[in-house]
Specification:
Shape: globular
Oligomer: single chain
Helix content: under 10%
Radius of gyration: 14 Å
Largest sheet: 9 strands, antiparallel
Distance between the termini: 31 Å
Number of helices: 0
Strand content: over 45%
Mean pLDDT: 90
Number of strands: 9
Length: 106
């Protein structure tokens, strides 16, 4: 467990003093990431949930959304998305998305 100067908290695995493996990061504003970590950053599959109810389930690389994922709006609309280095490159609304699928094999 680690608490940061900005009020954020990490609960999970560490390797050589860095967040690594499975972990949860809780921002002071109520946002939350639950997923894989490498070298102290979000890397791999994870779920990022905003306080307002928006959710992204998908791939992360070096602390940013990267690759395919599913975005679910606060009202429940589902979108198949793709990010590159934190930037949204495609989004397709899809009411039939199977949320049981795990990244990165959407």
């Amino acid at each position: 467990k680690r608490t940061f100067l900005d009020g954020g908290r990490y609960i999970g695995n560490f390797v050589n003093g860095e967040e690594n493996g499975q972990g949860i990061y809780l921002w002071k504003n109520g946002n939350r990431y639950n997923g894989e970590w490498k070298r102290g950053k979000m890397n791999g599959c994870g779920i990022l949930t905003n306080l307002n109810g928006e959710r992204y389930e998908g791939s992360f690389y070096e602390g940013k959304k990267h690759g395919k994922g599913i975005y679910i709006s606060a009202l429940g609309a589902k979108y198949l998305t793709e990010y590159w280095d934190g930037q949204l490159v495609s989004s397709e609304k899809n009411l039939e998305l199977d949320l049981k699928k795990k990244c990165p094999n959407f």
